[in-house]
Design brief:
The chain is an alpha/beta fold. The chain is built from eight helices and 13 strands. The protein starts with a strand and ends with a strand.
């Protein structure tokens, strides 16, 4: 099935392409089939399903803190909120008191991945050694990228934290080349400056390999 994703602004992440007003992405299966003005894509593919989003579409983000957020932090179950709160627990002593079995690490990682998707993340960087954690990342559709040096801290769910530029945070540009996966996110902000200022918590949708894996309710 063909799907057109469109928003007020499309940022491809490729310096050769200027931000495109009323831009759109044509997705075929797992891949990007075409990129261009919405009116042109809609006219050329009248039977395509259309998803119209608020704000802007940008490339999916890479969170550099894969091990720190998924293997060195516990994401409480909502049922534990009264006892443990809702934020990731990273303190070593607090983690030791939780009796973290491999199964519990896997469940925590699944919740952590969902929180990452809610920040436009489509990949994490860093080696994942716990099988249950690596499996949670793989099953969610995220990729695990190699990391050549430790990123500056502190670890966080927002890949744009610290006013990192969008160019620094994206996994790869949105390009209509054969074999390029349809990985991108939608943020409810008017432009790139607002996105960097307000952060990736403004995400309203995350698409990984053509699948809508997160949508803000």
């Amino acid at each position: 099935m063909l799907t057109i994703h469109t928003a007020d602004l499309l940022i491809t992440g490729d310096p050769r392409w200027s931000p495109m007003r009323e831009g759109a992405i044509l997705v075929q299966g797992r891949e990007i089939a075409s990129v261009g003005p919405y009116e042109e894509l809609a006219a050329a593919h009248p039977s395509a399903r259309v998803r119209r989003w608020p704000g802007l579409i940008a490339p999916g983000l890479l969170n550099p803190y894969g091990p720190e957020l998924l293997e060195q932090a516990y994401h409480p179950d909502p049922r534990e909120a009264g006892e443990l709160g809702t934020e990731p627990i990273m303190d070593a002593a607090a983690l030791a008191a939780l009796d973290m079995t491999d199964a519990r690490w896997g469940a925590s990682a699944r919740r952590g991945v969902q929180r990452m998707l809610a920040h436009g993340t489509v990949a994490v960087a860093g080696d994942l050694w716990r099988p249950s954690v690596a499996d949670a990342v793989h099953r969610a559709g995220l990729t695990s990228e190699e990391r050549f040096e430790d990123p500056p801290g502190p670890p966080g769910l927002d890949p744009l934290a610290g006013c990192r530029s969008l160019a620094e945070a994206i996994l790869m540009p949105i390009l209509p080349h054969e074999g390029v996966c349809a990985d991108f996110a939608v943020f409810d902000v008017p432009d790139e400056d607002a996105l960097v200022e307000r952060g990736a918590g403004t995400c309203v949708a995350t698409v990984v390999e053509g699948r809508l894996l997160y949508r803000r309710r």
